[in-house]
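Hey, I'm writing a tutorial for new members on how sequence and structure tokens pair up, and I'd like a real worked example in the thread rather than a made-up one. If someone can provide the structure for the chain below, I'll link this post from the tutorial.
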Amino acid sequence: MSISFWQIIILVGMLLLYFLPYIIAKIRKIRNSTSVFWLNLFLGWTGIGFLVLVFYASLTSVTKEQSVKDFLKNKKN
């Protein structure tokens, strides 16, 4: 069984889509990008975990020193 060029392209595209929250966090240079990576790795397969991480990575203030825990606590209130 040989792997075609298009299968590799699709696999890379799926991996990029899966790690989209981490990519957003790195581009925006948020403080907890490492936390976003690990949470994405372990919870990204759940729909809720993926959406929470996308919102966190895209809506967190870059200049504000805020942890993931503080962000979720403030969104809950």
